[in-house]
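Example record

Each entry pairs one chain with its bound ligand, alpha-D-galactopyranose.
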Amino acid sequence: MRPQRTPNAQICTITHKNAQFARGGGAGRGFLWRLHSYRRFRERKGGVDAECPAISRRSSLGSDWLAREAGRSAWRRTLEYLVMPHKQLIAGLALLCATLPLTSLAAERPAILLGAAWYPEQWPESRWPEDLKLMEAAHIHVVRVGEFAWSRLEPHEGQFDLDWLDRAVALAAQHGIWVVLGTPTAAPPAWLTQKYPDTLRTEQDGRKAKHGNRQQGSPTSARYREFCRRIAEQMARRFGRNPNVIAWQIDNEYGAFSWDDETHLQFQDWLRQKYGTLDALNRHWTTEYWSQTYTDWSQIPMGPGGNPGLNLEFKRFVTASLRDFQHIQVQAIRAASDPRQFITSNFMGWYDAFDHYVLTEELDFASWDDYVGSGHLDAVRNGMTHDLTRGFKRKNFWVMETQPGSVNWAPVNNALDRGEVREMAWHAIGHGADAVSYWQWRSALNGQEEYHGTLVGADGTPVPLYDEIAQIGREFEQAGEALAGTSPVADVAILHSYDSRWAINGQRHNQNFDPVGLLLSYYKPIREMLQQVDIVSPDAPLAAYRMVIAPGLNVLPDDVSQRLIEYVNAGGHLVLGPRSGMKDTYNALQTARQPGSLVPLLGGRVEQYYALNEEVPVSGAWGSGTARLWAEQLQAQSHDGDAAEVLLTYGESNGWLDGQPAVLSRKVGKGRITYIGAWLDDTLMPAATQWMIRLGGLQPALGPVPEGVEVSRRVGAGKEVFVLVNHTKTAQRVTLPRPMRRVLHDGATASAVDLPPRGVEVLRAK
Ligand code: GLA
Ligand code: GLA
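Structure tokens for the complex follow.
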């Protein structure tokens, strides 16, 4: 069932349609287009008190706007909308409503979108209507288009052909499908790199990238950036006001970098600007070590691979370079587009080539590409990646790509089980996704990805998975109203720092010490017990959290340390994991023992750290278990009053650790700081988590559920919605703490629900 049209939607629909006439059909700008322009004029002047969803939307995806929108009935919105402008417009509008067929956009845009990556440039135009019809039948409401189509958009230097894309956008609209336009800068055309070879990336081993793959353009090349700016600008000029285009995706999966001379000079210049003097740089990098002292900026090699200070700065430089590369396109698009069009880019989860908090700063929301590859959904790890992505901007996000069954690049490209694709889709929504989009609709008949999973086959008809996708689409429509304006909310934050990850990964000391694995060891029990947790940057506001966990905050800059001290003094519980507070912001050792400037607050310190080649017994207040990979010998010390109490102690081990503290905790006013000096095993970690939860008086979002059933909660706009996903292959019964409405079952009230294997339940509590 497609959503019912509301009068408000009709206004928007007509407005869209008219805009399409003005663009696609070549007809002159009509009455309603003028109404649309009038409204935009008033919006700019700040004079609008009612919003048409399709016209004005920026702020925060799935929250501010949707919250406001959901709080007002369609009729009220219509009334506000109609009363505000001139009366003549109302009369004209009524007339047009009566005469115009509403064929362009079927309805208000659903709050939760199902999508697919569509490549119209790979197919004859005569095929498009059939594809779009099949998408419409699957309840697909968004397509991402254009992100590799540069050779079609600019077939020759400076000659642009955007007409075909305009027609594709218009045709999609006729099927109730909105468009995300990708800028094509991850796939430069052959004429460009042939004529300007300096736009090609240089690999770290000195080889030049070649045409025939993608990401061969150098993101640091001034010339390449200019070509990117120009194509983005051309697209924005054409589509920046197109009501059917709802968002932009800049480039595709950033990360490829260039090791050419131009980039090297930029790195040296970037360092000069940051450090000011070589003396400062030499001091912070301790370059007396191995005679690394620099007497000229041009002597500084480009990382990674050398001095830890240099390595960390190189990562920050890559971040700054990619941000500049992105910014040039963002600027070009913003200058020529309607503010209701969002700008995003699609990231790759834990990929750490750059700092995602920095890259997402100027984006409207973050997106990521969620692929399982070989095997099956690991709901904890995947959920953690959703939460990571939500934390980039601390707002809802999109799954811009996900696998329709299988991929083509894993060691074994097995398909997800029947029902598992739906399980993944709802798992994403539970964690705060507002869209799930499949890569891809149909395989190009040739090209590197012929074997990838799709929704239609080479013959253009649906594959078996198509029906499951259509079911997801139907359900997204059903649940849209309940989920509009809602987001996950948590009492606990886990801090994730790229600096710390880079610093540890550069010098793991134990090859198995994976910082993301450490984060997971904290995330898993917290998420399972509380059913909600945020993952945020150490720079995020922390005051609203009852507990903040920093699993391995290796790099502890002074300002972060100060904020953490304030957090504890204000009554929060700060939990630090091993290797915290060891390095300063230059990746140099702090002159204090760990956790550096937090030692006085903790009332204790790290005496020595040990990489472990075998597990070490640990016992105390949290029971008994083992430490693995890493163990720090702690010592409680008195600073301005009481010392920390010892919660866990090492058993017999290497002699040094025997009987020594492994965990310290100290109450500070109403707050508390706890330092866990070892990587704890799967027995101790849940026990530690229980202790933290009890101490903080924290409650799970829903309550106890059978193992393997994942609970997610989204709140906002006066609503509270639970998404339950059964990640097991057996049926599960969940007893609800109070009766709730079953959103996917016509709102029927239930006090218990039965989840079939891989089953899903969406429950509205408020
Ligand atoms: C070698 C080198 C030293 C030092 C040690 C570290 O012996 O000569 O400079 O690097 O290894 O084990
Ligand atoms: C990435 C890319 C897509 C496609 C898929 C295949 O996510 O962004 O273009 O190559 O992988 O899984």
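Residues 1-104 have pLDDT under 50 and may be disordered.
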